[in-house]
Amino acid sequence: MTIEYATRHRRASHIPPEPGKPYFVEKGEGDRAHLFGDLFTVYAGGEQTENTFNFFTCDGAKGDIIPAHLHPDTYEVFYITEGAVRLFVEDQEGGQHEKLLSPGDFGFVPKNCPHAYRIERHHSRIVGVAAGPGGTFERFFENLGTPTEEFGLPREPYVPAPHTFGTVPQEYDVRFMPDHVWRTGE
């Protein structure tokens, strides 16, 4: 059993709205949001860690590539626990890298490096951690996407209105790169 808190982001959350409180979150009970065809669940964020890191999961089905983007001030980790995810990353010198990640595989994306991913198998799960001097970006998912109380994937993909891509991401250290071209084997 977990306690529910009211936060500035939601009426009810299993995550306390301020740092310094120990807490426990049962599987799937974090703050959930649908974005594209995926379910994002946040277990710890900037409010709890004084903006030092966040911890979240992304559950999804095989689908399209997530748009190329970068985080100017945030490092991001991709750890695969189920399924398979293809990670695309461009380093600071412009070299592009592509890797199919399976359960137990790890991918690291330094700050300011363009990246994208594509879920390659149904029922895939990414465990994500992000940290950096610019804070954390976990509230991006529910502000670009839509908060949900559901535990599963969206029945229909949630595609944000085009104007939100220009406003919401900047607030959360995310910069989309719509004209970015991947020259790897994608």
Q: Return residue spans where pLDDT drops below 50 for at least 5 consecutive residues.
A: none
Fraction of helical residues = under 10%
Q: What is the total tally of β strands?
A: 12
Q: Which structural class should the secondary elements be placed in?
A: mainly beta
User: What is the overall shape?
Assistant: globular
What is the ordering of alpha helices and beta strands?
EEHEEEEEEEEHEHE
Beta percentage is 25-35%
Q: How many DSSP H or I helices?
A: 3
Largest sheet: 7 strands, antiparallel
Give the spatial strand order of the biggest sheet.
Answer: 8-5-10-3-2-1-11
Task: Please provide a written account of the structure.
The chain is mostly beta strands. β1 and β2 form a beta hairpin.
Please specify the SSE layout and strand pairing.
Elements: E1 31-35, E2 38-44, H1 46-49, E3 53-60, E4 69-70, E5 75-82, E6 85-90, E7 96-101, E8 106-109, E9 115-119, E10 124-131, H2 140-144, E11 146-148, H3 164-171, E12 175-176
Antiparallel strand pairs: 1-2, 1-11, 2-3, 3-10, 4-12, 5-8, 5-10, 6-7, 6-9
Question: How would you summarize this macromolecular structure in one to three sentences?
Answer:
The chain has 186 residues and is mainly beta.
Can you tag this structure with a few keywords?
single chain; 186 residues; mainly beta; 3-stranded antiparallel sheet; 3 helices; 12 strands; globular
